[in-house]
Amino acid sequence: MANFGFGTLGERSALGRFAADLPRIDAKVLNGTLEALAARFGNRLVTSQAVREQHAHTTSWLPRQPPDGVVFVQNVADIQDAVRICAPRKLPLIAYGTGTSLEGQVNAPAGGIAIDTRDMNRLLAVHAEDLDCVIEPGITRKLLNEQLRDQGLFFPIDPGADASIGGMAATRASGTNAVRYGTMRDNVLALKVVRADGEIINTATRAKKSSAGYDLTRLFVGSEGTLGIIAELTIRLHGIPETIAAASCSFPTVDEACQATILAIQTGIPLARIELLDEMQVRACNAYSKLSLPETTLLLLEFHGTEADVAGQSERFGEIAKECGGGNFEWTMRPEDRTRLWQARHDAYWAARALRPGAEPVTTDVCVPISRLAECVTETQRDLRENRLVSAIVGHVGDGNFHTVLLCDMNDADEVRRAEGYLDRLVKRAQAMDGTCTGEHGIGQGKQEYVAGELGDEAIETMRLVKRALDPDNIFNPGKILPAD
What we know:
Layout: H1 27-41, E1 45-46, H2 49-54, E2 69-72, H3 76-86, E3 93-96, E4 113-116, E5 123-127, E6 132-135, H4 141-148, E7 153-154, H5 165-170, H6 178-181, H7 184-187, E8 188-194, E9 200-202, H8 216-220, E10 229-236, E11 238-239, E12 243-251, H9 254-266, E13 271-277, H10 279-289, E14 297-305, H11 307-323, E15 327-332, H12 335-346, H13 348-353, E16 360-367, H14 370-386, E17 390-396, E18 401-408, H15 413-432, H16 451-455, H17 457-470
Parallel strand pairs: 2-4, 3-4
Antiparallel strand pairs: 1-2, 5-6, 6-10, 7-11, 8-9, 8-10, 12-14, 12-15, 13-14, 13-17, 16-18, 17-18
Helix pairs in contact: 1-3, 9-11, 9-14, 10-12, 14-15
């Protein structure tokens, strides 16, 4: 089987044809464009190798493909001017938030300019009575919530990394709170997007619902920067719960844990978070975060509401867990205990990585209907054992999404081959269960080959028609989402 992206650029991988460098712009045209950008942006255009490499950062297995330059934008007009300079010359533009995406979304296979939004990090307006706010795309979720805290509000989407909100919208991010609060698709009310001609699209208003025309907001949420550059967002907010409780509960197997989750959801317990950790992931978290959790299949939970509500929810789930074979159910309202437990969950990637020093972590995700989650995870664990592979599993069990952190020795050709086969089977297993090749990481470069099999050729052609209509010269993040023609 061909190399899984661990070798030279351009080799076919089991999880996507991310291609060698795409055709690049003529060097003379590139130099002229860089001169025009320098005249407009001064020292906010950076072409140093170190900064360019940083903007090809990817926390997964894909090789880095740096842009030709980076423009640090500070307002909407900056984005518009960058587009107006680059578009006539057909120089690609790649929107960049914090670089935490996992499928090569910020790579520049055709070169071009990275549009770094880190300085566009302001909270522009808060409408507390309407439970929404207007923000710039570069603000991160932690910074936003720090600024909202005094008003008793918070933004609930938590993908783990301190990602930019613009990047989270572009990749249709999700996370640990999705079971109660939804994903970015559910929490973006409106966008201001810069088109390929430098003009601005306003996709909606602050109204909580509308029947006015096509749903342009949802078109751009999840488009991974391939249709335009998000310059402003209006997002939903929620009141900070009066009381929050965290809990953990161990189970003999994944099946019992999933059955407890399904029963809890069916009986109407308003779970805020519910996360599944397999035995290997628990062992990793114990070692890395200095915990003493039972090293078996584990659920981590969080309940929001009044003190009485939270106590009642915790007790009801404890009864369900016992009925499904769970044990060691513990819950706490102490903020320091909650923080420690969830920080361990957020550190799961680094904890898993520490299990096998020197190995390369290959992180991927799939999502299936929750009724098929236990079956999918169990088959995945068996696949790993049979192929002598090391991988921790952690999942957003409330919505059927789980991640594997495969630790692969890149110097062992046979292990790489086995890893390739496993990753390919993982995706096809999920799709065969009416699931998807990715629940929240996105397609980027890494999973392009699986989109047609999941949605059909007609859907792919429809996406191509949208792309051609909005970006006829393919300047916005080329080489992402759609497989090559």
